[in-house]
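Hi D.,

Good news: the full-assembly prediction came through. Inputs first.
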Amino acid sequence: MHTNAYFIIIITVALIVLLAIPLGKYIAQVFTSGKWSFDKVFNPIEKTIFKLGGIDTSIEMNWKLQLKALLWMNLIWFLIALFVLMNMSWLPLNPDANPSMSLDLAFNTAVSFITNTNLQHYSGETAMSYLGQMTLMLWQFISAGCGIAIAIYVFKLMSQQQEKISSNFYVLFVKANLRILLPLSIIVASVLVFSGTPMTFNGKDVVASLEGEEMHVSRGPVAAFVAIKQLGTNGGGFFGPNSSHPFENPSLLTNVVENVCILLIPIALVIAFGQLTGRKKHATMIFMTMMVGFIMLLLPAISAEMSGNPLIGQMNIDQQYGNMEGKEVRFGSGPSALWAVSTTCTSNGSVNAMHDSMMPITGLVTLTGMMINGFFGGVGVGFLNFYVFIILAVFVSGLMVGRTPEFLGKKIEPREMKIAVLITLLHPFLILTGSALASYIYMNHPDQTSGWLNNPGYHGYTEMLYEFTSSSANNGSGFEGLGDNTPFWNYACGIVMLLARYLPIMGPVMIAGLLASKKSIPEGPGTLKTDTPTFGVMVFLIIVIVSALSFFPALTLGPIAEHFSIY
Amino acid sequence: MKNELFKGIRITAVCAVIFALIYPVMIWAIAQFSEGNGMGQTITIQSRKHYLNVGQEFTQQGYFHGRPSAVNYNAAGAAGSNKGPSNPDYLKAVEERIQQLLQDNPDMKREDIPADLVTASGSGLDPHISLEAALFQIPRISSHTGIDSNKLHQWISDQVDMQTTGIPAVNVLQLNLEILKEMSHE
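Then the structure:
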């Protein structure tokens, strides 16, 4: 009897939840110097880092200073990335003699990696030196570390035991990188190297195939890169086809490990929220709402991929293993569907199968996952997105039942609401304007856009919609048929990624900062309870309404129309 | 303002040392204890080195064929086809592959063709085919090589991976190495 695809899927999801709970508790310990924070090991290392970095850890930082530190640091990263990417050809560690990037591609790639998006308009084998790859790997760590740090700061503002958590951005940032991302990456990279993932600084190998043809085999320091790519909701592959490449993801075992890593930290941060704020019932409400949303997106994808393509079915061949175009035999269609939904619900964006070749229903749910971008979401920032939805839900339900809208004892007033609404509207604004602009150019300048689309009709339009959705969700996956290494796509997606990264970080931090400075109102019988299943349903409905109203028309023209043209 | 800028530069430099230098070197050192020393798992047969995980292109009728590849198994430029499920060109290509298979395997029927034999993998380097795809090719290989079909069956059932892959899978290269060994004995 063969291991059932459903069995693999259930085991993977169970593993994710079982591992995320202790990790969440560990994260809470790290930031409160608890019993399990391994201070003896890490404190001396941190001391050295702060000394070399010139950081005075006793300096308190308010929310304005936090954001300032984050933005300055990211600007520096952008400039370094731009320099390295545009000068790779003569810099060291370039055994395959790959070229430097053009300005537009370097802009897109630099923005993409500092914003934790990892949208890739290039293929690593032919466009990257190992120095370039190691530079991008650095951003994969520290951009994720930034997200965790800022989320922990927001937790601190909502916490009842605030004084235990440092308010120094650099302290939070270093702890997140050193005590969470690094140890996990070492574990995962070790699993990968022992499963056959290369980790070498040698260049391409030239061998002869069995039939005597010359074969060039790209290699590199892959294992180290893939581990943090999966853990930090980064998703940028070492090779062009990402984790479908047999070196990045050699077996079903590594596939399960990498899939667990996608969701691990985003879920653990929800647990950590409960621990750090002392509001475990709230954490449960948030976790359940996110999980229900995740599963509701997952089931249709699994069913669509495992039943196969009806147009291929009409050719009377054996499709018992489902839709195999763009998929690897060692994973199969079911686990590939699980990965597709995991990677789009979080802002990971790595793929183990080509999303462009998936069924329209899967295209629909992956797009929806990115449009909501809060069913777990990116490390740190996913929680911030969800926080904005909570604020909206509090306000709307407050109006519905005629109570003053309060969240965690703080009154929500027009100023916070304005920020929340602007942040919520930014995402559809960027996606829809971008897609509309691209469609307009495509229709009116066919001579310049002939290389854009790899598929005709509804599917071709979905390729453009997906690219902007992925950019705005800081996701990074793609309908990779899109010919996207052109100045238009490089600049347009780059600008979208920038706006969609920093504004949705600034907004929630501002809201949390403003709320924290308000007087606490003691809970009374008139207080709206925000930790109940009822309120979870309310948040869920707000999310559905906001995304349905904004995105449904765009989705109708793409995956929904394609679905009805097939079935 | 300036203060945060300099702090940012210094802390980034320290991070670069830890995460872009110490960390990869550490993983590289760990990899030295793994099979293949971090250079990829290989097998050397008749003084030729083969990467076990990287699919190869097989065109001779006496060998098992792998899946279609959008890049002809170019291991220095891997990619999928990225064809959408409703793309007419794609459906035409699949039908042509079916015709080709029926022509190459005259003993087999259309209903026996497993989908993985007519669809391209995501990486273009898929080293595996499904169990059904291997069984499908037995009569052709037997008639071209003279190897008894029971023997081919035996190799497939020896090598088929029932537990650690998403669907029952066989590594095409390893099957073909058996054929190579058998043929060079004769």
